[in-house]
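Work Package 4 report. The design task specified in the project plan requires that, given a folded chain encoded as structure tokens, an amino acid be chosen for each position. We show below one input record used in the internal validation round.
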């Protein structure tokens, strides 16, 4: 949980929060060992929520607000945000889409940075467009950001301030630049026209009936985008981009007093708009009668049903209101746990489901009940989920359910508090955005910790049980049904009303909370001993060899204070299985998590792990198998217990298996006729050259998944610990790690088996293969995919050159195909390097576009490659990419994940990422001539798969 995002942001900011209640529950960690001082803290709930005092807040004479804070995560970096309290809802009808268009124009010429000057200037310092420089437009806000800016060069900070200054009031809005951007926006419009987007467009007039929320979708009207006059967008810009509707947020590793002085000096010069229009607040009219909408689409794959009960928000100003947000989160998590339980057994009529309280749009929240229904089972799905909601309304929760969430909440609070110095600059900036736009106070870590503990200690079961009756009202209800327009029977408003009335009239039996009293491991473990020790001085790590021949590598790292990571592997994977068993073998790793482990089903395991910040996941991939995990330092022993159980006592639950198969069958029922699925399957088979080991996800695939074969494969792969290597990185003392490793990993079975993977490489098509596929489409769209591959020696020089060539081509395609041609919203360039099972290089270039332009734009892809081979990159291009690589590498070293990756790479591939020869020496010696040669070697004789997808005529 981010500090300044605080509890209320986590629970109320977006509708998606309620849909992630399982993740919210699982993410809670340990705690009960709290200081008496913290536990004894009391609060006056009528008092105001206190603001974070480390933040400098101010309002300039022209009305602009600013937030400035020192923060060293990441070290020597800063983030700059321009927050406009302006979005698509402020558009006139003839401006529909221009709020978003204006956001694009902010990167196409300003007073101090003509043309693409902002991007070109910042990229010289390794600050990349898309990665570090970006923006978004929503219905109520537009936000620009420049992130991870190096702070050692003071002039660069001044440059970023000048960019914000220009974004505020000095966009050029040049006619030629506007005309060039029309194509880019048109292609973004095309890209967004998916089935889900079209369904949302059908639903909006009903969900937001009578409000402007029903009229704006941000991307806007394509006809307006193509034809508006420059004066129309300039009018929107003048009316709404103004200092009294703007805030800047600057967070990073710099002198805050000096930064504040610069902000005052620079931004105070921006004139306030005279006779400014009043910024409207948009309301959604109430409805007494249920509003219903059935929305269908030819390309929709699944049926969804949702009940929304809309509520107008009260201001979240007092501690009492903040406490209510905690209560809502507890309710969501407890209900989510019950729904998850339904998915683990039997054959529920839904594929997935959720229910709880979440955000709707600015100023409104909603109680929602949603399900992705089995085909033609919409009524049954709604009844099943709504029954669980009504069961809570009638009988409430059990104290045991609340106690589990309390344990988890306390653990989460402690984990967040330990990580309070590891909050990223962008997290603070996003919190300030919420404080500015919706008056949601950014609080301190200390307050979040103390108040959170107070709420957990004082919250009662009655508090949580009151939620349902308060939020599940008869008014302001909207029900939406979404799904395919054929081969599925959809229900209407009459059936919906009957289902709701029938459930509400039932006298339901109380939920039974069957918690297991068993220990994770009840047997006595034999343990083992470290028989050999090796110090890895360069990595500050230690290698232990145990008496059962397991190799364990440990490095202490406290960059992430409350985290320990584990990774393990051995060679073999699915490569050891014949074609007839490949589907079951490939499914084993993903299915095992649904079965539980040892004596515990997935449901009972979740309950027994309540309050533990721990996750352990076995996997079986093409060439390796292993177990990955992560935990809080206090739960390290629990993590190793789970590792032991997944090795020695895996579980194969037939009921859970059948439930998962049933849900997957329901999910794919309408995929077979979906044009996008057909195309994806076609591409998959073409690119694999119809490899018999490559299977399409369909009913035949599910038919081949056999739980007995999964059990056989899993027990073969995750069995002999002697050929496993474990890497552990985290904030836990070395002596404790050694003790626990000897006890649990030392107890794993050793059968002294030596295995490696088999080369199952299937021959690829040689030379150039061109395919044109046709598919029916609701929105005509062309897709171009050009994939290069070539056998090449794996070494640092080739690896780095391939990455640089891809990055430079990405820059060029953005400039030529996106900007100059206006031909696509974006070109994806993905370089790849493979070491095993075969050494090779790859490059995949893909984009969506107007189908009539597909051939022309594809010719530009090849033309640019030809030019690159002949001329190579410019020195400026090479310098940009090298600076970006070095900046990102330097930044990554301050995280545990860097050291986990470094040690894994060392032991798996033998490469020392700390060695200067791995990257720095290569980067320092590279010339434009080297890159040109590398491109020529790769592209000249590479095999090419050239696929174009066009709409069926």
């Amino acid at each position: 949980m981010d500090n300044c995002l605080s509890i209320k942001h986590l629970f109320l900011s977006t509708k998606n929060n309620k849909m992630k209640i399982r993740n919210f529950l699982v993410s809670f960690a340990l705690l009960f060992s709290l200081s008496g001082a913290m536990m004894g803290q009391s609060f006056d709930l009528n008092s105001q929520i206190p603001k974070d005092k480390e933040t400098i807040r101010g309002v300039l004479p022209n009305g602009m607000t600013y937030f400035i804070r020192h923060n060293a995560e990441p070290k020597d970096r800063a983030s700059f945000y321009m927050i406009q309290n302006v979005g698509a809802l402020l558009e006139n009808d003839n401006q529909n889409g221009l709020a978003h268009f204006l956001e694009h124009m902010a990167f196409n010429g300003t007073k101090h940075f003509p043309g693409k000057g902002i991007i070109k200037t910042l990229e010289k310092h390794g600050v990349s467009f898309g990665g570090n420089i970006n923006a978004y437009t929503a219905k109520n806000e537009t936000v620009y950001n420049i992130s991870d800016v190096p702070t050692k060069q003071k002039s660069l900070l001044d440059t970023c301030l000048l960019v914000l200054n220009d974004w505020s009031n000095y966009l050029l809005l040049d006619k030629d630049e506007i005309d060039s951007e029309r194509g880019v926006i048109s292609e973004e419009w095309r890209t967004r026209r998916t089935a889900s987007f079209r369904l949302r467009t059908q639903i909006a007039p009903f969900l937001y009936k009578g409000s402007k929320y029903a009229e704006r979708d941000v991307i806007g009207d394509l006809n307006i985008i193509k034809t508006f006059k420059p004066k129309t967008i300039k009018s929107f810009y003048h009316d709404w981009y103004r200092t009294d509707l703007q805030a800047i947020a600057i967070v990073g590793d710099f002198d805050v007093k000096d930064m504040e002085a610069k902000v005052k000096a620079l931004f105070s010069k921006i004139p306030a708009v005279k006779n400014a229009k009043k910024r409207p607040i948009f309301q959604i009219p109430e409805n007494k009668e249920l509003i219903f909408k059935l929305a269908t689409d030819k390309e929709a794959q699944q049926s969804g049903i949702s009940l929304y009960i809309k509520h107008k928000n009260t201001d979240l100003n007092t501690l009492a209101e903040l406490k209510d947000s905690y209560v809502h989160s507890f309710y969501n998590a407890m209900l989510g746990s019950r729904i998850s339980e339904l998915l683990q057994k039997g054959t529920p009529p839904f594929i997935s489901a959720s229910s709880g309280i979440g955000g709707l749009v600015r100023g409104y929240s909603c109680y929602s009940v949603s399900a992705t229904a089995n085909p033609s089972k919409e009524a049954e799905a709604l009844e099943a989920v709504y029954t669980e909601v009504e069961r809570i309304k009638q009988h409430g929760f059990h104290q045991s359910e609340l106690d589990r969430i309390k344990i988890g909440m306390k653990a989460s609070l402690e984990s967040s508090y330990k990580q309070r110095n590891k909050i990223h600059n962008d997290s603070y900036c996003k919190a300030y955005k919420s404080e500015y736009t919706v008056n949601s106070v950014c609080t301190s870590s200390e307050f979040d910790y103390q108040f959170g503990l107070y709420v957990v200690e004082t919250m009662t079961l009655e508090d949580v049980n009151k939620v349902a009756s308060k939020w599940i009202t008869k008014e302001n209800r909207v029900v939406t049904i979404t799904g395919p327009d054929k081969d599925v029977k959809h229900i209407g408003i009459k059936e919906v009303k009957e289902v709701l009335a029938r459930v509400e009239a039932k006298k339901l039996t109380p939920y039974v909370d069957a918690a297991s009293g068993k220990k994770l491991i009840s047997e006595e473990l034999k343990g083992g001993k470290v028989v050999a020790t090796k110090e890895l001085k360069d990595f500050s790590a230690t290698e232990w060899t145990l008496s059962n021949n397991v190799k364990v590598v440990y490095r202490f790292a406290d960059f992430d204070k409350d985290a320990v990571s584990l990774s393990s592997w051995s060679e073999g994977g699915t490569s050891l299985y014949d074609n007839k068993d490949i589907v079951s073998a490939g499914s084993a790793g993903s299915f095992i998590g649904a079965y539980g482990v040892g004596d515990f089903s997935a449901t009972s395991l979740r309950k027994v792990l309540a309050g533990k910040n721990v996750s352990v996941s076995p996997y079986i991939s093409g060439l390796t198998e292993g177990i990955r995990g992560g935990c809080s330092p206090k739960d390290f022993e629990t993590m190793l217990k789970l590792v032991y159980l997944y090795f020695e006592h895996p579980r194969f639950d037939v009921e859970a298996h059948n439930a998962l198969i049933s849900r997957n069958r329901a999910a794919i029922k309408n995929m077979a006729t979906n044009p996008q699925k057909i195309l994806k399957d076609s591409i998959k088979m073409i690119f694999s050259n119809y490899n018999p080991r490559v299977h399409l996800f369909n009913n035949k695939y599910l038919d081949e998944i056999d739980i007995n074969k999964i059990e056989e494969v899993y027990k073969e792969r995750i069995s002999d610990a002697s050929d496993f290597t474990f890497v552990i990185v985290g904030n836990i003392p070395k002596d404790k790690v050694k003790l626990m490793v000897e006890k649990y990993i030392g107890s794993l079975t050793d059968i002294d088996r030596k295995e490696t993977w088999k080369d199952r490489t299937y021959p690829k098509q040689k030379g150039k293969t061109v395919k044109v596929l046709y598919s029916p489409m609701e929105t005509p769209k062309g897709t171009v995919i050009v994939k290069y591959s070539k056998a090449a020696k794996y070494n640092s020089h080739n690896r780095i050159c391939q990455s640089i060539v891809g990055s430079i081509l990405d820059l060029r395609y953005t400039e030529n195909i996106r900007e100059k041609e206006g031909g696509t919203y974006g070109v994806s360039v993905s370089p790849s390097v493979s070491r095993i099972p075969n050494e090779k290089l790859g490059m995949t270039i893909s984009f969506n576009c107007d189908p009539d332009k597909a051939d022309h734009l594809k010719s530009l892809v090849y033309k640019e490659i030809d030019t690159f081979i002949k001329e190579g990159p410019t020195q400026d291009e090479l310098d940009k990419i090298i600076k970006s690589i070095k900046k990102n590498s330097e930044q990554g070293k301050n995280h545990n994940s860097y050291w986990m990756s470094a040690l894994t790479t060392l032991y798996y591939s033998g490469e020392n990422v700390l060695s200067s020869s791995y990257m720095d020496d290569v980067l320092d010696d590279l010339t434009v001539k080297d890159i040109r040669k590398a491109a020529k070697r790769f592209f000249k004789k590479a095999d090419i798969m050239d696929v174009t997808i066009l709409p069926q005529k």
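The first strand starts at residue 56 and ends at 59. Validation will be extended to a larger panel in the next phase.
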